[in-house]
Design brief:
Elements (H helix, E strand, L loop, with lengths): L21 H13 L3 E5 L3 H5 L12 E3 L5 H14 L6 E7 H6 L2 H10 L3 E7 L34 H6 L5 E6 L3 H12 L4 E7 L3 H4 L6 H10 L6 E4 L3 E4 L9 H4 L10 H28 L1
Parallel strand pairs: 1-2, 1-3, 3-4, 4-6, 5-6
Antiparallel strand pairs: 5-7, 7-8
Helix pairs in contact: 1-7, 3-5
Length: 294
């Protein structure tokens, strides 16, 4: 797909997102790549709030509000109904946050993935329960401040991509709003594949991350360039492909731009660096094993 400078905007002006919201930018990019033959599923979270209160909506495609924990099976039900009607040209995309994906909705997502239902699932990961007061989630990074971890999160972030890979679903990929072309190319690729496709989309939250409202794109780029959030694909749970060679900048260049990490000491920053380096080496090994078989 060739992306034009002027694309349809399926997240219209007048939405209720905070200034500089990475989630709104991410949804806009996903919708542009999905096109108008799309049905979206959203849940009671930031994406549910920003779209507008009934009967008004900022979304430019048919959108179904599901319960918080069932974005995936709701999308699967719609997709199967369309299949029965022979409407194969219409695709279904489910949006849920990290809380609705890593935590409350994980079992439902696992069941849909086990069945390999034909949906695209986008995890809008802003790394906490932002819509309800910035509470910690399983996606919150180590030492990050939240309303329920005022001294810093004592646990590491759950590796959702490896959980998805363990289901051997046909396609999973990471993406950020700082690399918009990469994100949209992955959405287009996901559309061409039948089965359960999973997009892990990092979407900085200025409010929860305690940053200026214009910093979300820069933070998305730094997350990639510091190896905190590598860009890669996993196909059939086995084939790993790295999509961008990062500059491997020190993690402190990413952490110290965010108020949620301002309390970190040198030892904690050193520990985060060690964890990031360990995960990056592990990912390179997985990608290298696949490349060596080609």
């Amino acid at each position: 797909m060739v992306f034009q400078e002027q694309q349809p905007n399926f997240l219209r002006t007048g939405h209720a997102a905070c200034a500089g919201c990475g989630l709104a930018a991410g949804m806009k990019l996903v919708f542009q790549a999905m096109g108008h033959k799309t049905i979206a599923v959203i849940v009671p979270s930031c994406e549910g709030s920003i779209g507008g209160v009934y009967p008004n909506t900022a979304y430019g495609v048919p959108t179904f509000h599901s319960a918080f924990e069932i974005a995936a099976p709701t999308a699967a039900g719609i997709a199967n109904a369309l299949k029965i009607q022979g409407k194969d040209e219409i695709q279904v995309v489910a949006f849920a946050g990290d809380g609705g994906t890593y935590d409350i909705g994980l079992a439902a997502l696992s069941g849909v993935t086990k069945n390999n239902d034909d949906i695209i699932y986008v995890c809008l990961d802003n790394e906490a329960y932002m819509n309800t007061g910035i509470q910690v989630s399983s996606a919150t990074p180590s030492y990050a401040w939240t309303g329920t971890t005022p001294e810093g999160n004592p646990r590491r972030k759950k590796n959702i991509m490896e959980i998805m890979a363990a289901h051997y679903n046909p396609y999973s990929a990471t993406a950020t709003i700082g690399f918009p072309r990469d994100l949209q190319q992955k959405i287009v690729k996901a559309k061409s594949i039948r089965g359960t496709k999973f997009i892990h989309l990092l979407v900085p939250c200025p409010t929860g991350w305690r940053t200026p409202s214009d910093l979300a794109p820069e933070l998305s780029i730094l997350a990639v360039e510091t190896n905190v959030f590598p860009l890669y694909e996993v196909e059939d749970g086995r084939r790993y492909t790295l999509n961008h060679e990062p500059r491997s900048l020190p993690v402190q260049e990413y952490l110290l731009k965010q108020g949620r990490f301002k309390h970190l000491n040198e030892e904690q920053i050193r520990q985060v660096q060690m964890d990031v380096d360990e995960e990056w080496e592990r990912l390179k090994q997985r990608a290298g094993r696949f490349a060596s078989r080609k």
